[in-house]
Design goal:
The protein has eight helices and eight strands. The protein is α/β, with parallel strands linked by helices. It has a six-stranded mixed sheet, sandwiched between helices.
Length: about 270
C-alpha cells in the first residue's frame, strides 16, 4: 500500500465528511456474585475510566450494561460521554452467576440496532469484562457468539476483553470470543484501577485517531494490571510454531454448547437506541 493510500485509509477511519467520526462504545460489566470481593475497586476503576473518556475530547456515545443470571440492567444508553454519571455502591450490587454468552450476544445485537438507526457510520468498540467463566447461558451457544463477533469484526467493529483474576484468553475462547491476543488482558483482582486505566487510555486515543492499533494493550499496561498470562501464552505459541507435523489440538473446530452452558439464566433483550 502506498503512503497516499495509507493516509486515505487513516482519514476514512477518523473522519466523516471532514469531521471526526463518532465513537460508539458499548461496555458489558460483570455484576455477578464473585465480583463482590472487588466491588469497590471495580467501581473506582470504572469511574476513572469514564473520567478519562470525558476528558479526551472525543465524540463518544456510551452505553453501559451490567449483567448476571438474575438481571441485565441498562445503565446508560448511547449517552454522550459527558452525561455518564459515576457508578455507586448503591446501584452496583454483585450477585448470581455468569451468563457471559447470552449477555455478550444481546449487547452486540442491541448495539448493531442502535448504530443502524443512526444513519451514519460511527466507529464501534465493544468492551466485555468478567471475572468468571461462562456457566449459565441458555439462549445462545459459543458458536453463535463466535460467528457474530466475526461478522462484526469484518464490518470494522473493535472488540476488547478484560478478565479479572483468571486466564482471560481461556475464558474468552471458551465463550466463543476468538479475539486478537493484543485485545485480551487478564488483570489481578487487586489491579482493577490499573486495568480500567489502560483500556480508558486506549479507547480515548482510538476515539481521537480512529487507529485500530490504539486499542492494543502495551507491555507496560499489562505489567501495571498484573497480567500473568500474556507472556506465558506467547511463549507457548512460540514453542508450537517450532514444532512440525503436530496433531490437531483436541477440541478444535466450531465450539458447541457444552455441559457448562446448562442451567437457568435471565438475560433480557434490551434496546440501546
Amino acid at each position: 500500500m502506498t503512503t497516499e493510500n495509507t493516509q486515505a485509509t487513516d482519514q476514512d477511519a477518523t473522519t466523516t465528511n471532514g469531521a471526526p467520526k463518532t465513537t460508539f462504545v458499548s461496555f458489558l460489566l460483570d455484576e455477578t456474585g464473585s465480583m463482590e470481593s472487588i466491588k469497590d475497586d471495580t467501581i473506582g476503576g470504572f469511574n476513572e475510566y469514564v473520567k478519562t473518556l470525558q476528558g479526551s475530547g472525543g465524540d463518544i456515545l456510551f452505553s453501559l450494561v451490567s449483567f448476571n443470571s438474575s438481571r441485565t440492567e441498562k445503565r446508560h444508553v448511547a449517552d454522550p460521554i459527558g452525561e455518564v454519571r459515576p457508578l455507586t455502591a448503591a446501584d452496583y450490587r454483585p450477585h448470581a452467576m455468569t451468563p457471559l454468552i447470552d449477555a455478550s450476544v444481546k449487547l452486540i445485537k442491541a448495539t448493531d440496532e442502535a448504530v443502524a438507526r443512526r444513519g451514519d457510520d460511527p466507529n464501534v468498540v465493544i468492551v466485555l469484562q468478567t471475572d468468571g467463566q461462562e456457566n449459565v447461558s441458555v439462549e445462545y451457544t459459543r458458536k453463535d457468539l463466535a460467528l457474530l463477533v466475526k461478522e462484526k469484526e469484518t464490518a470494522g467493529w473493535e472488540f476488547v476483553f478484560l478478565g479479572a483474576g483468571l486466564d482471560a484468553f481461556d475464558a474468552a475462547h471458551r465463550a466463543g470470543l476468538v479475539l486478537s491476543d493484543q485485545r485480551v488482558m487478564s488483570y489481578g483482582r487487586a489491579r482493577s484501577p490499573q486495568a480500567f486505566a489502560g483500556i480508558a487510555m486506549n479507547v480515548a486515543e482510538y476515539a481521537e485517531r480512529g487507529m485500530s492499533a490504539d486499542l492494543d494493550f502495551s507491555p507496560d499496561q499489562r505489567a501495571a494490571a498484573g497480567d500473568e498470562y500474556h507472556d506465558r501464552r506467547e511463549r507457548k505459541k512460540a514453542r508450537k510454531r517450532g514444532r512440525k507435523g503436530r496433531s490437531p489440538r483436541r477440541g478444535s473446530g466450531a465450539p458447541q454448547r457444552g455441559a457448562e452452558d446448562a442451567g437457568a439464566s435471565t438475560v433480557d433483550d434490551f434496546d440501546l437506541s
